């Protein structure tokens, strides 16, 4: 099992190039199943979840070649519609192949994703919405067995709760349904906008008709395309917080600052100096960090995927803060580890009270989920001495070359077996 050794404390200085978005790439890769033409994708991040999704597509019959920073997907011989547990269990986004397989074949057998450290991760909203398109399904031995004997039929669907995955699954499926579909109460994360751009470039007919409502006119076929995936806004937010927490000075490049306006505004409120350019944000961390209360929310609110990282920063604030986690039911797994480093965080349900004026002490740590793992690195970067972070495969699921990027800006960090 690999570990990361981090020798703190030092200020991060320099430039970091942000990779392609994991959470835009996953639905776009699933959506390639709609096509039986060649698709070339650029800027997919080299992270474990993308490798797992590519393995899942290969298990469904897609031919995949990777050349330089391009992934060529050829589905001319793709015909299997069974997505196995061993590929879906480690990556919940595997459920996103259900939509395209139903759209293309009218039937699919996909493993239920199963829970994970941050919650049970149900898919009831996906399934209820599919039944509105004429899908009959049953759950059998941990698999969703779904059929639409007469093909998918367009319909009006209102999501009972904002769900990123359900919105993505239904947009993809409805793109090939007979007739028109209106989806309302949609999630509007930038990754979903990127998926819609990709589908429309392939020849689908999808239009946002209001903030959270989308109209989809079903099509029968799509064309060969080349597409470059958007930047990873969570990776960008993570490195912005790394600069703030180490009183560093970082230029975060290959991004669109407008997309992370909420995060930038919050970091300004906390006391960081921020200079935005066309595709870059420079952040200069302030010695004095102001406390702040935060609630996670669907986009454009504060992202749950930056909650753990922000908690580390608020430990360094001048007074206590409260973070309320309103998206997932169990996303405070990092609190125990941070308290072992000297933090004083008390959780009560979905609220965490974070005492300020903390100096983290180095420790031997255990990563639990992707974003909790990176929050341990942020704390370790400010702790004087050597910290060791175990189970870093969680990190490798979603951060490309993380120790290389940190090392390039002055962090003393190395991966050991
Ligand atoms: C996506 O997960 C992201 N994953 C998550 O990022 C992100 O935290 C989440 O959206 C919220 O922004 C990908 O894009 C691959 P949801 P998803 O459906 O689609 C409940 C990361 O670190 N729910 O918006 O699974 C659900 O349990 C990952 O990159 C139902 O109850 O999130 C959660 O409490 C972690 N029934 C809430 O809704 C359903 O059918 C939001 O989930 C679906 C979801």
| CATH-defined architecture of the largest domain | Alpha-beta prism
Oligomer: single chain
Widest sheet: strand ordering? 22-23-1-24
Average of per-residue pLDDT values: 95
Could you say which small molecules are bound to this protein? ligand EPZ
Number of helices: 14
Helix content: 25-40%
Low-confidence stretches: none
CATH superfamily of the largest domain: Enolpyruvate transferase domain
What is the CATH C-level name of the largest domain? Alpha Beta
The beta-strand count equals 24
Strand content: 25-35%
How far from one another are the termini? 6 Å
Structure characteristics:
single chain, 417 residues, alpha/beta, UDP-n-acetylglucosamine1-carboxyvinyl-transferase, Chain, four-stranded mixed beta sheet, 14 helices, binds ligand EPZ
Report what the structure shows.
- The model has no long low-confidence stretch (mean pLDDT 95).
- Helix content is 31%, strand content 26%.
- Helix 4 runs parallel beside helix 6 and helix 5 runs parallel beside helix 6 (164-174).
- The longest helix has 13 residues, at 190-202.
- With 417 residues, the protein is α/β, with parallel strands linked by helices.
- It folds into two domains: 3-19 and 231-416, Enolpyruvate transferase domain (UDP-n-acetylglucosamine1-carboxyvinyl-transferase, Chain), CATH 3.65.10; 22-228, UDP-n-acetylglucosamine1-carboxyvinyl-transferase, Chain (Alpha-beta prism).
- It is globular, with a radius of gyration of 21 Å.
- It binds ligand EPZ.
